[in-house]
Design a protein that fits this description.
Layout lengths: L20 E4 L2 E4 L13 E5 L2 E4 H15 L8 H21 L6 H19 L2 H8 L3 H26 L6 H9 L8 E2 L2 E10 L1 E2 L1 H19 L4 H8 L3 H4 L4 E6 L5 H8 L10 E3 L2 E11 L2 E9 L6 E2 L1 H15 L5 H8 L3 H4 L15 E2 L5 H7 L11 E4 L5 E12 L2 E2 L2 H28 L5 E3 L14
Antiparallel strand pairs: 1-2, 3-4, 3-17, 5-16, 6-13, 6-15, 7-12, 8-11, 9-10, 10-11, 14-15
Protein name: Periplasmic chaperone for outer membrane proteins SurA
Keywords: Isomerase, Rotamase, Signal
GO molecular function: peptidyl-prolyl cis-trans isomerase activity
């Protein structure tokens, strides 16, 4: 939304100067330059109640704006607008604390794991990521944890404030009618692309070998060796291995069912048999129970990369493709019932544009693997099964469906209703947020460094 520094999920890490990411049309890449450490003298430049804005936060976002400007000068008030947006985000955090709006640790952990998994996939391996940034994966995650938690809280506050706002078709037409005819946006070529994904399964021989190795480690633990020492040496869960496999406390239904069921069958100190989950194979030790919560440690082993069998996934997708092409099944229904990609399956399989959440993807921002596949396809056609890697590094197969392909054109209600409706909704949500800020900005303590005294903080950004 325009009044926040709500950058795409991976750009949001910039203020920690760890990872530079450009995201577009469902595809993102790590920046080519190495991260630049903070060389400036850092300090607090604004306080909103007990929330602080650091100078390095401001400079980090400013440097991002400079990079995106590609040599063009930025407006003189850019730093003020950035600081204003940072302060508004801190107001959200301050009010979230007052209103007891929180996110649970498991949600933060899942978001951290998702981001780190994506970065690892982009750069090639965990080891390469650690070498690139000169620090262990755990340290990178620890440095990001607070920021990710704040982002999730801010999002939850925004959802509470404006999440139920909607627009009617009449409001969309009125919004479009107010747009000056000589200022209507011009859209380049865009496509709508759907996918049905099947994750390749590890072949049985490799699974059996992984289980056998983990059973050997379990036998060593039962014979008296230290669980934590073996976890540090062998576990392939980077987040917990350095802690001796310790995961900490979780409530019921916060961990995957297979893991939780095995853990809760144990007495404190007990060791589980080998357990399979979506993440691999585990040996679990129950440490303690506290009411509805419990703490565990585990050793995770994953079957080796490249040992998956894509044949069965390809056969299944080939059959689905024939059914859709024969009109006995719609692509949307096939995606909903069969796709392993949960981000798109509920959306008829259609990929979303991460910039505006629409299903229209600019051709020049497509993942090259998708672009070169659909480039020769006709609208309505479906590709044969194609191997690829998921964002979290899993071997998979997918079929691609070209739903629409629009030529360059000036915005109009017939072709661009979805985009115009999204813009109208965004404007209406911004008004709701503006009203909330106007109501709440006087309820918090604000202090600003004299260097930025001319910036009008805690006012909405037009």
């Amino acid at each position: 939304m325009r009044i926040f520094l709500r950058v795409p999920a991976f750009k949001a890490l910039l203020s920690l100067t760890l990872l530079v990411v450009s995201a577009s049309a469902g595809h993102a890449q790590l920046g080519v330059g190495r991260p630049v450490g903070r060389t400036m003298v850092d300090g607090i430049i604004a306080k909103v109640d007990n929330q602080i804005v650091l100078k390095s936060d401001l400079e980090g976002v400013y440097n991002q704006e400079l990079a995106q400007a590609e040599g063009k000068p930025l407006p003189p008030d850019t730093k003020c607008k950035i600081l204003q947006s940072l302060a508004l985000n801190k107001l959200l955090l301050a009010k979230a604390e007052t209103d007891s709006v929180v996110v649970d640790d498991n949600q933060v952990k899942n978001e951290l794991d998702r981001r780190m998994g994506y970065f690892v996939q982009q750069i090639g391996s965990e080891q390469k990521l650690e070498e690139y940034y000169g620090k262990p994966l755990k340290q990178i995650k620890d440095e990001l944890r607070t920021q990710v938690k704040e982002q999730l809280i801010q999002q939850k506050m925004q959802d509470q404030i404006a999440g139920k706002v909607s627009v009617t078709p009449r409001e969309v037409r009125q919004y479009f009618g107010r747009m000056p005819k000589d200022s209507l946006p011009y859209y380049s070529s865009e496509v709508e692309v759907g996918q049905i994904v099947k994750i390749a399964q590890v072949n049985n021989k490799v699974k059996q070998a992984t289980q056998a190795k983990l059973n050997e480690l379990r036998a060593r633990i039962v014979a008296g060796e230290d669980f934590a020492t073996l976890a540090k040496q062998y576990s392939q869960d980077p987040g917990s291995a350095v802690e001796g496999g310790y995961l900490g406390f979780f409530k019921r239904r916060e961990l995957v069912p297979e893991y939780e069921a095995a853990a809760l069958r144990l007495e404190p100190g007990g060791i589980s048999p080998v357990v399979e989950s979506q993440f691999g194979f585990h040996v679990i030790q129950l440490i303690e129970r506290k009411g509805d919560s419990y703490s565990t440690r585990h050793i995770l082993l994953k079957p080796e990369t490249g040992t998956t069998d894509t044949n069965e996934a390809s056969k299944e997708l080939a059959k689905l493709r024939l059914r859709v092409m024969s009109d006995s099944l719609t692509f949307a229904k096939a995606a909903k019932d069969n796709s392993d990609d949960k981000l798109t399956s509920g959306n008829g399989g259609l990929l979303q544009n991460r910039r505006d959440a629409s299903t229209y993807l600019p051709l020049d921002q497509l993942d090259p693997a998708i672009f070169f596949t659909i480039d020769t396809m006709k609208v309505g056609s479906i590709s044969p099964p194609l191997p690829y890697r998921t964002e979290d590094g899993k071997d998979a197969v997918r079929i691609l469906y070209l739903k629409s392909n629009s030529p360059p054109h000036q915005a109009n209600l017939n072709d661009d209703y979805q985009k115009i409706a999204a813009a109208a909704l965004n404007q209406k949500k911004n008004k709701a947020l503006d009203a909330w800020f106007a109501l709440n900005r006087g309820t918090v303590y604000l202090e600003v460094d004299p260097e930025y005294a001319g910036c009008q903080l805690l006012n909405s950004i037009n």
